[in-house]
Amino acid sequence: MLLYIHGFNSSNRSEKAVQTAQYIQRNYPDLSFYQPQLPSDVDEAMALLTQITEKALADNQPLRFIGSSLGGYFSSYLAEKYGGKAVLVNPAVNPYDLFEEFLGPQYNPYTDEHYQVLPKDRNAVAQYDTHVIYHPDRFLVLLQTGDEVLDYRLALQKYHCCELYIEPNGDHSFVGYEQQLDKICRFLQLP
């Protein structure tokens, strides 16, 4: 099983999500691949991700995750809790510390959804934090130093013991992501 997890105010139709889906379809057509549109509510999003993960576990499928930004944060939690391997792309490290700037009305341009980020959402996100990475061998972390949304040095500090791939410049979307898909799939040990 491979679960692609998009970031905050993003979508399963984002460029990285679509590139990943197309690559998997071309190269691993028999792989159980999930790319859900996450609900804007944090607990509902994690409930959906947990349901997919637990079903794969029940079916004795190896667990694999690709997470971008907030999806990387969620992927860390799932890989630490359930096992499996995870590739994190410009992952959020402490997203709850950024909540003040996102409080209030939000708009997701991919889904055309209008919703509110409330103070309670900060605590909801914080409960999925992996303060310590106990299984560094489970993670490949892709970072670009030009990320304009998240400070890549926070991820470098948190995931220093994991396999890291750091490129200069770039941006939060991870410029050239599609060229990393071979490396990603090798790390995930796709069949």
Automatic annotation (TrEMBL):
InterPro entries: AB_hydrolase_fold, UPF0227/Esterase_YqiA. Coiled coil: none annotated. Pfam families: UPF0227 (PF05728). PANTHER family: ESTERASE YQIA, ESTERASE YQIA-RELATED. This is Esterase YqiA. The lineage of its organism: Bacteria, Pseudomonadati, Pseudomonadota, Gammaproteobacteria, Alteromonadales.
